[in-house]
Amino acid sequence: MIKNLGKLKYFILKKDDLKGLKRTDFVQFTIDNRIYKIPVIIILDRFKKSVDWNKNDVHKQSSSVPKWIERANQK
Question: N or C end: fewer C-beta atoms under 10 angstroms in the chain?
């Protein structure tokens, strides 16, 4: 399953955005007219120790597309 988060100005993600998705599913979004499709397992592994993430707060990245998202992008 692929959940489309639509167009984003920068990478922003809430834990609720992954609700109902399995670790084998994907999240898709567009930043700067480029489509990114990231496996849920990579997102979960990346943030499993994050205090803000575990409190269900929003995760933002100051740059528009973090390097780890670039590497994880499934073309």
Answer: C
Q: Which pair of tokens denotes residue 48? A: 């499993």
Domain boundaries, the chain: 2-72
Q: Is the pLDDT of residue 49 over 90?
A: no
Q: Say which amino acid occupies 21.
A: L
Residue 21: pLDDT over 90? yes
Contacts of 25 (CB under 8 A, 6+ apart): 1, 2, 3, 39, 40
